[in-house]
Amino acid sequence: MAAEMSRRGFLVGTAVVAGGTLGLGLWRRSRREGHRLKAAAPSQLALGPGRIVVAKGQDPAQNVRRAIEAVGGMKALVKGRQTVVIKPNMAWDLPPETGANANPATVAAVVALCREASAEARVVVFDRTMSRDPAGPYRASGIAEAVRRAGGIVHYVDESRFREVAIPDGFALKSWPFYELVLFGDQVDVLINMPAAKTHSTSGLTLGMKNVFGMVGGERGELHQQIHQKIADLNRVVKVDLTILDATRVMFRNGPNSPRRSDVDDGPERAQRIVVGTDPVAVDAYAAKELFGRDPADIGFLRYGAEAGLGEMKFTVREA
Amino acid sequence: MNTLRRITQIATFLVFAALLIHAAALVGSAFASPDVVLRLSPLAALATMAGAGAFIARYVPALCLLVLAVAFGRFFCGWVCPLGSTLDASDHVLTGARKGRKPSFYDRRRLKYYLLAFVLVGAALGISAAGWLDPLSIATRSYGLVVAPYVVWLSNGVGMALTDLPAGPLGDWWRRGSGAVVADSAVPTYDQQALFALLLLALLAAGIWYRRYWCRNLCPLGALLGAVSLKPLFRRSVSDECISCHKCERTCPMGCITNDGKGTMAGECILCLRCQDACPVDAIRFTRRQPREQDVAVDLTKRGFLATMGATVAALPFLRINPERHATKGRLPVLRPPGARPEEEFLARCVRCGECMRVCPTRALQPSAFEAGVEGLWAPQLVPRMGYCVYTCTSCGQACPSQAIEKLGFVEKQTRALGKAKFDTSRCIPWRGHARFQEGLSEWKDCNCGTCEEACPVPTKAIRYNRFVGKVGDKEIVIDRPYVVEDLCVGCGFCENVCPVAGDAAVRVEGPAAAAKVAADDAPATTPGVDPNRVLAPQIDAWARDGEVRLYAGRNALYDYIDGAGEPYLTYAFLQVAAAKYRQDKMEANADLWYFKTPEEAFGAYSRDCSAGARAPERLGNAAGSGEGEVWVWNGANYLHLVSLGQKPAARDDLVALARALLARMPEGEAKLPPVVAALPAALREPTSVHFFHHELTTPDVLPPDLTGPKGLALAAGQPAAFARYAEGGKPSHWALVAEYPTPADAAAAARRCSALHATAKVAAKAGDVAILELAPNALAAFIQAGRRVGVVLKAQGIEAAKKAATDLGQSLAH
């Protein structure tokens, strides 16, 4: 059965296999280099610096629809065969009632809106979770299931796809690894950030700007020293086209991961709403002021964000 | 029959694989428990029960299989066992390698019987070896910890390569499709993966010498099933048509056919029926009857058996001498999974299958090597740097076939500590920064971290901050140095997991001394109706809030607020308190907004404070009073307390106005009074003197201790009582006290005891059938019982007043 092999055949075979493997590796590497960083997506949304839209009501999906329609509909942002990347907060292995993650209904509604805006668009949803195996939080948050139903693609972070990016003017960071899927123009056309509204033990609040922690690699813990500066620094790199803050529930104490229902407010007075804006600083400033009763100027990352020119702390609200 | 057997093997293997792949998702589902296959092993069942000295109900399927084996022998090996099926499947590769090889390798079937004896006798002696040798444990360990991660790795690699291809969605499709098959998204990594892979390969490679080498020579489960098949229904019997062509002998995977195809070794046949299909003359039947001479015994020897027993006993010290335990001064050198039984019993029960490691969502559970001694080999340990124990997860206990890890409820799980976290302040970033600050460094960089505190899943946080405030030049700097509240720490390892310090973490979880518990956290489980941040708003009329609203939820948090004087509030079913400071001009006021479980309890705390200091009632909330720089308000389940602070005391009007404005931000409270309070006559009562209590800590100080003590009313903890002062025409008239007892008989006994306390006192008057006693000049008392209540009149001013008070109280009690 075993065929004889000549010495020559052995050498040739080894060379062919080794060369092929090497070539494949080089080809893959070439595909990874020379990427252009993503630019802000061309948008006709009726939003801009300092301008935000709030939709209130008991049905989170309807809130999303009303808010997006009020600014010109998702067609103003998503077109053709674009890739839309949605980064909800689904970092925690906790169920939706805790408000620790974005609400699955909200995320599903955004996915559906993108799909309705363009049937050819790929809508990819991911988060770099607190757990090494993202399956737990993806499942517990209810988001993965809801996204699949809405026709989105649930993406699991591939640890080999983080790319170091220089931050020349950074307050505290000179460079940091970012995930390719939010970074490169050939991998993402539209980036939508979907934070939850929670208090945070280190940064005071976790809203849209802090949610960028789930778009980057590296040792998460290292970001917790000089956290306000670092939040602003990371936001200099990622070009978020739309921030949709999910305040269906508001974790008003013991955030960001309290499992307790008593730490969550789901009443109409400060929860049950969606905040939409293209200006990440303004969205967070609204949330800080209206949902948590905090002066935006007291929140370090908003101050640094405004200083870095990422947006404006003064906001004008339109109700949808 | 061959086809049917093969289909059964494939089907059972697919079930085994599906259970293993989707183990995490199956935990807690009604459909199937991930450990059902493991629970089929009578070997593990007998060994763990012998080792633990307890009946394990989850092993009932295994006991059923043992009973079935009496009639069906080793059919399990040939038709069901996933390891057997694996060996059968891999055999195709090895057939060629076996050809022409002279079988000279060790081939003694009795060895497995000796291994069986070692496992069972060892279990009784305290050696837990079943898990190392049980084929179902081996299969689960091999597939779960080696093959499954390998497949995920391959699948992810293909997915990655496809994503790089220009064809776009191919990668997404692959990931979606493979996601359904391999279930995992990240490659699970396990300690000793390579060792398990080598062991599996060794088992497969032994097929170079004989087919199913493991099954015929080594498997103690096979030995057990063979040994109990006392009344087999299907025995191989060969008729006279046999032409001794040896075809059956060659085809038998167990090599148990002897004597020119006519003999069968007892307890070796796995009923695979291959020989029947191979027989050219159809001479083989499986029936109850088998000619006696065709039954060949296995070559067991008495000497071998005795040697095994000797070896087992001799091996005992090597497994039990455990230097690791001495090295850690009695602490466990490893962290065990949540719900793990005490170490001895845990090891006796653990079958080393790795199912818990499969279902652990963070891959925190890893097979131990020799960290906990030789006997702990491959038992699960929690490695916080790999993963952490999810606060709300009880998967491992639900997947454990032998209940070495107990199946816990969520509440129970959260009270069992796996260990306790400890800070290494020489590594921790804020502590280091603080130390360097103290050393006088002129340049200071923000060294606050708090990653551990953020991660801590305990609702009230077991990691808290010790705040240091210092100055660099003119700049005030704050360093929050984390510390562990040991009573609350559950030892989940999340802090150690996320600690950004490279190498060893600055906070590490240490093994528990013994069954460490977590102190009860009675923090509110439901949302209290009133949100403190809404009520204690930043601006209330002219009052401006100074700083944040500080919230103290639960028993332990209260100590953070008022240490030493908090206990009275705890006796009143305390839930939480929110505190805020308000300023107006030079006036300062502190506002405490208390939350209790019920309006009655809130009234209790309110009445205790108010009765001690109030001068006048106020028309606020459900009841209120004001005193020197203080206002107390009862409003449903809340109690609002304002105190004037600072240089310029706030006037009563200012405080009342502030209280009114705060109350306007709250819904109207439910004015539900405790029944004993309602039993106090309302007429002539000083409204702010009412005091409801049910614990000695809150009993009014003015009451004589012998009255409330065991010789008098004998008020027990939890027993409701109320006290009030009465006045007529601005002059104090008397006091009244009402206590409620579980039964009328208890109440009568208490009233009798009270009267007996003053047996020598003169009866001054009678009000109905109640005697009014003269205790001292002008000090009159009466003790009245009605139903479950006892009423006491004290300090009455004059006979007539006492008579009236006793009559009123008697009537009021009856309601």
Question: Would you kindly provide a written description of the structure presented here, covering whatever features stand out?
Answer:
The complex is a heterodimer of chains A (320) and B (815). Chain A has nine helices and 13 strands. With 320 residues, chain A is of the alpha/beta class. In chain B, a hairpin with a 2-residue loop joins strand 18 (630-635) and strand 19. Chain B is elongated, with a radius of gyration of 39 Å. The N and C termini of chain B lie far apart (85 Å). The chains are: A alpha/beta (320), B alpha+beta (815). Chains A and B meet through helix 1, helix 4, strand 4 and strand 11 of A and helix 9, helix 10 and helix 23 of B.
What's this model, at a glance?
With 320 residues, chain A is of the alpha/beta class.
Overall radius of gyration of chain A: 22 Å
Note the gap between the termini of chain B: 85 Å
Structural class, from helix and strand content of chain B?
alpha+beta
Helical content band of chain B = 25-40%
What is the global morphology of chain A? globular
Strand content of chain B: 15-25%
Rg of chain B, rounded, reads 39 Å
Intertermini distance of chain A = 76 Å
- Average pLDDT, all residues of chain A: 91
Count of individual beta strands of chain A:
13
Question: How is this fold's topology laid out?
Answer:
The complex is a heterodimer of chains A (320) and B (815).
Chain A: H1 7-32, E1 51-56, H2 60-70, E2 83-88, H3 104-117, E3 122-125, H4 135-140, H5 143-149, E4 153-154, E5 162-166, E6 175-179, H6 180-183, E7 190-194, E8 196-200, E9 204-206, H7 227-237, E10 242-251, E11 264-265, E12 273-277, H8 280-291, H9 300-307, E13 316-319
Parallel strand pairs in A: 1-13, 2-3, 2-7, 3-4, 7-10, 8-10
Antiparallel strand pairs in A: 1-12, 5-6, 8-9, 10-11, 10-12
Helix pairs in contact in A: 2-3, 3-5, 7-9
Chain B: H1 2-21, H2 23-26, H3 42-52, H4 60-72, H5 75-79, H6 82-98, H7 110-125, H8 130-133, H9 135-164, H10 169-182, H11 193-205, H12 213-218, H13 220-228, E1 235-238, H14 247-251, E2 257-258, E3 263-265, H15 274-278, E4 284-287, E5 295-296, H16 302-320, H17 323-327, H18 343-349, H19 355-359, E6 365-367, E7 380-382, H20 395-399, H21 410-413, E8 420-423, H22 429-438, H23 451-455, E9 463-472, E10 475-484, H24 494-498, E11 507-510, H25 532-535, E12 539-540, E13 543-553, H26 555-561, H27 567-570, E14 574-584, E15 587-596, H28 599-613, E16 616-618, E17 623-627, E18 630-635, E19 638-645, H29 652-663, H30 675-678, E20 691-693, H31 705-708, E21 721-728, E22 731-740, H32 744-757, E23 762-767, E24 770-776, E25 779-786, E26 789-796, H33 799-814
Parallel strand pairs in B: 3-5
Antiparallel strand pairs in B: 1-4, 2-3, 6-7, 8-11, 9-10, 12-13, 13-14, 14-15, 15-19, 16-17, 17-18, 18-19, 20-21, 21-22, 22-26, 23-24, 24-25, 25-26
